[in-house]
Write a structure and sequence with these properties.
48% helix, 5 strands, GIY-YIG endonuclease, three-stranded antiparallel beta sheet, alpha+beta, binds zinc ion, 4 helices
Length: 144
Amino acid sequence: MKGFIYSLTCSKTGLIYYGSTTDTEKRINKGWPKCSCKNFISPKFEILEELEFQNKKELLLKENDYIKNNICINRNVAVRTKETIADYNKKYVEKNRDRMRENTRKYEDKLKKIFVNCPNCNKELKKRSLRLHLLNHCHHQSRR
Ligand SMILES: [Zn+2]
């Protein structure tokens, strides 16, 4: 079978969407209402590559390459593979890790602003330093 990889470029923003089809006429006539490129303004349709394939997956894998290797608005790859799933999971973990770090930072900021009085010497301290204060300073002195 014959397949095509195409790009659709928004004339206003220059954003690019990649797709694949076996029938370019049909694809153009179908329009783009359900695509992630639906907001494109008078988009420019371009055939980037023509290829022969046995299995439709080959065409979709080719489309994957375009999506992965270029800056585009495609949110999903054309077909999921072990590689794309691993990649997705990696990104998910990274994204989560950033969020966790952010939460930790916020929590620490909050702690920085909390003041308490030492139950022993009544000194005003940051809550986060109270434990150290009790261990090193206050208790130590009062024990003497
Ligand atoms: Zn104290």
